[in-house]
Amino acid sequence: xxxxxxxxxDDIKPEKILNKTxxxxxxxxxxxxxxxxxxxxxxEVIPVLTVDEALNIAKKDRDKYVLxxxxxxxxxxxxxxxxxxxxxDKEYIKGKSLIITTTNGTKAIKRSIGAERILIxxxxxxxxxxDKILKLNNDLVIVNAGTYGHFSMxxxxxxxxxINCISENTSINPTxxxxxxxxxxxxxxxxxxxxxxxxHYKRIKELNLKEDLKYCCLKDIINIVPEYKxxxxxx
Length: 235
Ligand code: 3SL
Ligand code: MG
What we know:
The mean pLDDT is 97. This protein has one domain (2-224): putative 2-phosphosulfolactate phosphatase (Alpha-Beta Complex), CATH 3.90.1560.10. It is globular. The strands form three sheets. A five-stranded parallel beta sheet has the order 6-2-7-1-8, sandwiched between helices. The two termini are 24 Å apart. It is α/β, with parallel strands linked by helices. It has helices at 14-17, 30-39, 51-58, 90-93, 105-110, 126-136, 153-167, 176-186, 191-195, 199-206, 210-216; strands at 2-6, 21-25, 44-47, 65-69, 97-101, 117-121, 140-144, 173-174, 227-229, 232-234. It contains eleven helices and ten strands. Helix 6 (126-136) packs across helix 7 (153-167) and helix 7 crosses helix 8. The structure holds (2R)-3-sulfolactic acid (3SL) and magnesium ion (MG). Magnesium ion binds next to loops. Pfam families: 2-ph_phosp (PF04029). It comes from Clostridium acetireducens DSM 10703.
């Protein structure tokens, strides 16, 4: 299996994703939120790029839709939830349609339209994601959402862990960057000691969201793999 990595949402090029399986990773925190919400019974997730777009969809039926996401890592005015995965408890999210807009994660998803398949992954569902990719048996491009167009250590090591899981079950042909991600993971299996140096980890910590960090850094606690298709993410 050929495996490549794109380091940020801003670096996605149509020719790089054509006919490929894409895995979107924004472990801090957008893809961790999406995986958690769907695991907790959310019916579907609708990623959008702007706050206005989100509000316009939600106003059609305020019982059906919940609004979630962030700007500058903070809850958006008029929204129901922030971009903390811990907000998305069964009692609030079960049976609802979540409209989400975030700075980097939803952008990475939307910019991957045109790929063969678009999967949503994080550390919390890493092994399940690797298994699904093995079943699809297509070339893989991992899209790291990154942070404001820049490389993110957190998404990179998460990609490395997933590549490592895949490599345990099939032979892989990684690009240099994909090989480096796996190497970084293998030398830092205690992910937190590596991620704590990431700028976005520090930002979330400064906001006193330590429980979010703890949760997003757990490996393999969820076994679903959401997929984006026809504007909607479902399991
Ligand atoms: O950029 C994003 O998509 C967010 O996940 C960033 S934050 O962790 O919510 O600040
Ligand atoms: Mg991020």
